[in-house]
Specification:
The chain has 16 helices and five strands. By secondary structure, it is an alpha/beta fold. The protein is elongated, with a radius of gyration of 24 Å.
């Protein structure tokens, strides 16, 4: 676990750009959290924030074990409950020379009278304490965050990867557990499981554990998650963008019957059409890597977009994108029948496919 967070940190004052990249640069072990540090964990992705906290505790515990010390004492509490007395007790000198980790969650709810004490501590932290401060994102408490950053705390930003980066997240998770996977299989797992990082991480762990040391393949993913793959919002989007009306409607009804949220269907459809529109309008002659960055997709996705673009015109794409926007508004409250709104969207898109 210590190696995970070591790969996330860029140094004492660095802000992590990709906290989700478990593959990381594990060689930077010197940047792992240690006693005497203040670690600031910010961002809305709770899975990554929890992982950063666990990894920090694991890093300190490992250092203590390597040094032959006793177990590290961990105190985990809500910042809203903090007062001066408790804070002084948790961060002051220990009578028993105990190594400690203090985790303060919900930093945005820190009482205003505690802010000066916390900021002062961050400028001169205790040598036998690792303080981990967790802020769940948003503007609340931003003033405290800004002052903590000026105090040169280390920051981990728990921001989820973009949809097109999820296969890379999967590949990193599988390598983290000692397995291997190619881009196609990583994408297949995303299609099967969805965008939830906890679910993806759990699936990666399970697949590596059960693969018997072999590479994680599309076939293995189908064996474990094939039923779920057939009802994902991405399957609906792929069929509709390909102009396959009946399969798209069948996938849609099956997805809704299996509990797929309507908003996930419109999101997948919007993502697919957006990528297609960017690909179609990109300058010709670009290198593959540059084109992938321009469109916002992994390089392996370009082949699929090239094939799809042959059957779409600018007018057809505009019609399809408007249909998705209307359906998205409908499923978020503008219409009382989300299923009907999604079926109408699928029909409009498949009819726009190939229109001249």
């Amino acid at each position: 676990m210590a190696a995970i967070l070591a790969g996330l940190l860029r140094g004492r004052t660095g802000i992590v750009r990709r906290a989700w990249d478990a593959d990381g640069v594990a060689a930077r072990k010197g940047s792992a959290p240690k006693l005497g540090d203040v670690l600031l964990v910010t961002g809305t992705e709770s899975f990554l924030a929890d992982r950063a906290v666990r990894s920090a505790i694991a890093a300190v515990s490992k250092n203590a074990a390597d040094a032959g010390d006793s177990a590290v004492e961990v105190t985990d509490l809500e910042a809203s409950t903090l007062d001066v007395g408790v804070f002084a007790e948790l961060t002051g000198p220990s009578l028993f020379a105990t190594e400690r980790v203090l985790v303060l969650r919900g930093l945005e709810n820190l009482p205003s009278e505690m802010a000066p004490h916390l900021i002062e501590y961050a400028g001169s932290p205790s040598d036998d304490v690792l303080a981990v401060l967790v802020h769940s994102g948003g503007q609340k408490g931003k003033g405290v965050l800004d002052k903590l950053r000026k105090a040169s705390v280390t920051e981990v930003v728990a921001t989820a990867p973009k949809a097109w980066e999820l296969p890379q997240f999967v590949a990193g998770e599988i390598r983290l557990h000692g397995g291997t996977v190619d881009e196609g299989a990583a994408s297949a797992l995303v299609d099967a499981v969805g965008h939830d990082l906890r679910a993806l991480a759990g699936a990666c762990s399970q697949l590596v554990s059960d693969s018997g040391g072999q590479a994680v393949t599309t076939q293995l993913i189908g064996q474990y998650f094939g039923g779920r793959a057939e009802v994902t919002s991405f399957a609906v989007a792929d069929a509709a963008i390909a102009g396959r009306t009946e399969p798209a409607l069948e996938q849609l009804r099956w997805a809704l019957d299996c509990g797929v949220a309507p908003v996930l269907v419109t999101s997948a459809m919007a993502g697919g059409l957006r990528g297609l529109a960017k690909y179609s309008s990109a300058p010709s002659g670009m290198r593959e890597a540059d084109l992938a960055r321009e469109v916002g997709v992994p390089p392996w996705k370009l082949k699929q977009l090239k094939q799809q673009s042959r059957s779409w015109t600018p007018g057809g794409l505009a019609t399809a994108i408007k249909a998705v926007a209307q359906a998205d508004a409908d499923v978020k409250g503008a219409s009382g029948d989300a299923g009907y709104a999604l079926e109408r969207m699928v029909l409009t898109i498949t009819r726009a496919h190939g229109r001249r």
